[in-house]
Write a structure and sequence with these properties.
single chain, 657 residues, alpha+beta, 6-stranded antiparallel sheet, 5-stranded antiparallel sheet, 23 helices, elongated
Length: 657
């Protein structure tokens, strides 16, 4: 028996989530009617762990098929070995990436062998067979209790077993369907609805059926949702019996005609011999199916259509007349195409955009811009790609990178102005769907500042000018409050968020500061700081305060750390509030190593600047220190805070008097 399928159709949607942790194989829009393996994986473990698990599992399974073809069908023993390979792949990845130790996945697959269809599944993914003649959807009961049993592929040394169902080709017919899906579909498309959809899924209506599944899924699920729909278009015998010929009556030959028949027979034999010689020559010079398939595969490989190359290599392996050596060569070349396909996936627009967003969130704007540009090149080159390029995110990365460079001691205003111009152009275009008005306003001001400096430099005969660091957007500030240790890592190596100052110590960067007078309400007055330097440091202080407020709302240790770094750099110009915040961070150990000596230093400074919270903190720390003189000073400082209606100071004074 031989099965022909229609062009397969698939969904692979993120739903309302930021990251799609599902993975399908073949890739979306890459499946053909020649494909025989279809896989849907649903990853778990959080961003950059769940999607990695799903991708690695599907590709590992596909590669195992290349190196060890299953033959007529995937029996349980074969699947056990294949899943063991998948488990080992995940286990190795976990050992190299400890932050991914919680990764796991569910899986469903459909495989069309030589004699049987194999459906297999584990976890919350589903594998269905729809019998068009009986109008019946077949789904074994054991796949329904996945959430209760907790069955998953987890990267264990003791591999899980997949549930398996085999359907003989003799049991199939035109119009039957294979359907595999993640739980984002199966939790909201019940058996009755799916039966109705698949009932109408003839070759001409498959896209319509898929849209019905999409509508049923996206309207109810918050999860990713993915599926493959494969329609059996034709089932036929590989070799049909020749039609019966009518009986022929034996002719009556008399002696008079014998001589003529002998002569005719000789001529017939000579003609038959000549035809045989011609046929033999043609057979010797003709290209075999194997040769044709291999040639097509090589063409596809050269054109970087790796999915198509894999199909042709599969055909070469299965070609009639192919020797064991031929099959081994085709399998090896298919493995090469699979490896190249895996690399191509890593450079897909979806992956590049995802990585760029991660770089942006971590404050690595230069890498973010590079990934955005690569993704833009890919999406721009192929109008068929259904990838929404996040133009406003690229605009943000450009502006924030310009802000970083603008803060540098020796800045290149020409480069900075170009980055600002490109970023602002994106926000002004129709592609940008949202605007960060504060970010844009600052970029416009600093762009004008750069252009003014370049004009002044041009008058003096220079093209680049070094200037003091003006205000800029802190690269560590992020829209989402996640510490780097908690955040997912992109596929390529990331660097820590760039700081707007050098890595030299705060003591080396800080100028001599005049000691403030006790009780003064003014901020400490820095010595030997230019107006531009003072402005830049005050901008650092403002960033530190803003990040502190963000950290209070988010609980992000990274944002507390970034706030402390900015406040520490702004030490020469800290006002009462800034000094108090830095003292509080050192006192509590939020975002920094706990340091009581630094905490009391900055608390004293805040108290001297007449900041009530600083006065309370300084007084509290003096009391904790326990000296008689400390107690006397503490009461005086706490009284000043109480006079400014600081409730904590008022209550503390009641307990010590």
């Amino acid at each position: 028996m031989k099965i022909q399928i229609a062009q397969p159709v698939a969904l692979h949607e993120a739903g309302s989530r930021d990251i799609n942790e599902d993975f399908i194989y073949p890739l979306l829009n890459n499946a053909t009617a020649e494909d025989r393996l279809f896989v849907v994986c649903d990853g778990e473990g959080g961003p950059r762990s769940g999607d990695e698990a799903a991708k690695m599992a599907a590709l590992s399974l596909a590669k195992y098929l290349v190196t060890t073809p299953p033959g007529d069908m995937m029996d349980q023993e074969y699947l056990d070995l294949a899943i063991a390979r998948v488990e080992m792949t995940l286990l190795s990845y976990k050992e190299e990436h400890p932050e991914s130790r919680s990764m796991a996945l569910s899986m469903a697959l459909a495989y069309l062998g030589n004699t049987h269809i194999t459906l297999a599944w584990i976890g919350t993914c589903r594998a269905y067979f729809y019998d068009a003649d009986k109008e019946l959807l077949l789904l074994p009961e054991e796949s329904r209790d996945a959430k209760a049993t907790g069955a998953r592929i987890t990267g264990s040394e003791v591999p899980q077993r997949l549930n398996v169902r085999h359907i003989s080709y003799e049991e199939t017919g035109r119009g039957d369907c294979l359907f595999i899906s993640s739980d984002g579909v199966s939790e909201h498309v019940d058996d009755r609805s799916l039966t109705t959809v698949l009932k109408t899924a003839q070759s001409s209506a498959m896209d319509l059926s898929l849209e019905e599944i999409r509508a049923l899924s996206q309207n109810f699920t918050q999860d990713n949702y993915s599926c493959y729909l494969v329609l059996i278009d034709k089932v036929e015998n590989e070799q049909e019996a020749p039609a019966a010929l009518p009986p022929v009556e034996e002719p009556v030959i008399n002696e008079e005609r014998a001589g003529k028949l002998i002569k005719q027979g000789i001529f017939a034999m000579l003609g038959l011999l000549l035809v045989s010689l011609v046929a033999l020559a043609w057979w010797a010079t003709r290209k075999t199916d194997y040769d044709r398939f291999m040639a097509r595969a090589e063409e596809s490989l050269k054109s970087k259509n790796f999915q198509e190359a894999i199909v042709w290599y599969d055909s070469a392996v299965a070609a009639q007349g192919a020797t064991a050596e031929d099959k081994s060569r085709a399998s090896g070349k298919r493995g090469e195409a699979m490896s190249l396909l895996s690399e191509q996936i890593d450079n897909s627009p979806e992956t590049l955009i995802e990585n760029a967003g991660e770089f942006l969130r971590l404050g690595n704007y230069e890498q973010a811009i590079e990934s955005f540009r690569k993704a833009q090149d890919v999406t721009g080159a192929d109008s068929n790609l259904k990838v929404l390029f996040p133009a406003e995110k690229m605009g943000e990365a450009l502006i924030r990178r310009a802000n970083q460079l603008y803060e540098a001691k020796n800045r290149d205003c020409n480069q900075i102005a170009q980055l600002y111009a490109e970023g602002l152009k994106i926000f002004a275009s129709a592609e940008a769907k949202s605007r960060d008005n504060a970010l844009i306003s600052q970029a416009q001001k600093q762009q004008l500042g750069c252009e003014k400096e370049m004009a002044e430099a041009a008058k003096k005969g220079g093209s680049n000018i070094a200037a003091a660091t003006p205000s800029g957007t802190n690269p560590a500030a992020r829209e989402r409050s996640v510490a780097p240790q908690e955040a997912a890592k992109p596929k390529t190596q990331t660097s820590a968020p760039a700081s707007s100052a050098s890595n030299t110590s705060a003591a080396e960067r800080t100028r001599t500061v005049a000691a403030p007078a006790t009780g003064s309400s003014d901020a400490a007055t820095p010595a030997k700081l230019s107006a531009a330097e003072t402005k830049a440091l005050k901008a650092e202080m403002a960033d530190g305060k803003r990040l502190y407020e963000q950290a209070k709302a988010s609980g992000s240790s990274f944002e507390y750390k970034a706030a402390a770094q900015h406040l520490e750099r702004a030490a020469p110009v800290l006002d009462g509030e800034g000094s108090y915040l830095l003292a509080y961070l050192y006192r509590t150990g939020l975002g920094v190593k706990k340091d009581d000596a630094r905490a009391i230093k900055y608390a004293q400074r805040s108290a001297n600047q007449n900041w009530p919270s600083g006065q309370y903190l300084y007084g509290k720390m003096l009391l904790d220190r326990g000296g008689a003189k400390d107690r006397q000073t503490a009461i005086q400082v706490l009284q000043k805070a109480a006079n400014q209606n600081n409730i904590e100071a008022i209550n503390l004074l009641k307990t010590i008097r």
